[in-house]
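Example 312, ligand 2-oxoglutaric acid.
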Amino acid sequence: MTDLNIHARNADPDAMAASIQEQGYIIVRDMLDPAGLERLRAELEPRIATMPPGDGGFMGARTVRFGSLIAGCEEARSMAMNPLLLHLVESVLGPYCMRVQLNYTGVMHLLPGEKAQVVHRDANLYPFQNPAPPLICASMWAVNDFTAENGATWLVPGSHLWDDDRLPTEDDVVQAIMPAGSMLLYIGSVFHGGGANQSNGPRTGCALQYALGWLRQEENQYMACPPEIARDFAKPLQELLGYDLGGINLGMVSHQHPNDVLNGTTGDGPGELEPPAFAERDPSIHRFKVSDTRPVIRRRVSLDADKIQGRN
Ligand SMILES: O=C(O)CCC(=O)C(=O)O
Ligand SMILES: [Fe+2]
């Protein structure tokens, strides 16, 4: 099996960013210390215990899932603002947008007996052909140890560079085996999927995903975390949720800046919808060149868990 791209938390962040560009993913250890892990588990466990598993298909038949973590989980709010995570997300998405935003937050709790998920690209939510510039940058935090047996996320290194005709085989897959408190970060066009849980205990992952600020968010953050809740948060978290401009004029509310409207700081006149920082940044944003608009078949593939998890 290929060596995992796994780094210590205090490694050079720019070297980490470079390795994400190359391999499409990275694992960083010790992103949560034992106290943080304890707090996270204490908040998640009561919700996990009362949620039924999904009804099969992509969402799994033995997977407990729920979203809206920013509204419902204090520790997730601090994880979403983790400076190293934000630095790495910015390194992936920053060249393509004025600002990044949260896209989805949730828990993926695989119960014993869960089968492997189809291997897929999260970024296929959006109608771009591959290889495409990065649209999503997704993190998956190990709430307990991610092992070969309990369904550590499967990943296909380098597949963010593949075109749509290429599908992975079992030989292309590595597993994100990592101790609790570690974080896997991957570009949204990397093929991946939840592994099979062939162990006797659950595997709990916490997903915090980001996207280019000008895209529609997968999870509607304004409903998942409405103004009456978001108003109490620090401004940088409000902005990350999307209570901010996603580009010049993008996301305004009646010609006011959404963050002013959220916090009641709106004056009578028009708000600042073209901040100087955006105008400065604009020339350095990479433009997408979409000249080929053939239809794309969204491809997902079922792979054999015994050929992947069986070889460790
Ligand atoms: O549970 C996992 O490890 C990955 C889940 C996933 O990729 C998804 O649901 O999109
Ligand atoms: Fe996924």
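Summary: The pocket of 2-oxoglutaric acid (ligand 1) is lined by residues 108, 117, 122, 140, 153, 192-194, 205 (CB under 6 Å).
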